[in-house]
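Long-time lurker. I teach an intro course on protein structure, and each term I like to show students one example going from raw sequence to a predicted 3D structure in token notation. This year I'd like something fresh instead of my usual example. Would anyone be willing to generate the tokens for the chain below so I can use it in lecture? Attribution to the forum is fine with me.
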Amino acid sequence: MNLRKSASTSATVLVTIPSGKAVTYLGAYGTWFKVSYGGKTGYVSAQYVKVSTTTTPTTSTGTGRTIVIDPGHGGNDPGAVYGSSYEKVIAFDIAARLASTLSSTYGYNARMTRTNDVYLSLAQRVELTKSYKGSAFVSIHANSSTNTSYHGHEVLVPTGESYTTNPYISASRSLGTAINRELGVRIPTIRNRGVKYQNVYVVGKNSVPATLVEYGFISNSNDRSHLTSTTYRQRMADATASGIHQFMSTYK
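-- Reply from a regular --
Happy to contribute to a lecture. Here you go:
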């Protein structure tokens, strides 16, 4: 496998990495990983890399802290729709899987803002965080665009504008970054659009570290094939749980 100077097949080869050797992951850039190997830093094609998650803590150290999981939309609000694919259904399935993993694998008290197909206002979702005495809040969504070429997952965190009343701006950004990193590592077949600062009510108006995850564009064929796959929904949930746990392990 060639370690290249930039994320392109025409870029200079820094070194050829023998099969079976371990590299250190530094970031995801589309279909490329930024890695370090043998004292050199460069880019490798993600298709030739087998991701190892052995460095992710697997012990149950959640100590019962409550993570609020918010499945987007619901009831008479379907969210994005493409054919028979509904964002509210996709979001609920990923959220349920995420809650299960957080509880069974990491020992958190995972609470969902909705446990069936009902409508909740944005204010109600934020208020539930207080009712549940949550330590962190993650909202689950799928993206959509009239331009079907738009694709990839992204994570939304608070801006520093006056819109944001959440006192945990920095912690929210750390939470979002941890989730984004895990999604990029574990699901390289979806483009990593990165962490973005946006004025989102359930994030900016919350009272705990909060972020919103868009797992892909329901309007894009590649992303939709992932979003409608139970296998990939589980991988999305597991990646998100790992990111949450990594954040919570350092957040007091």
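Some talking points for your students: Residues 53-60 have pLDDT under 50 and may be disordered. The two ends are 41 Å apart (CA to CA).
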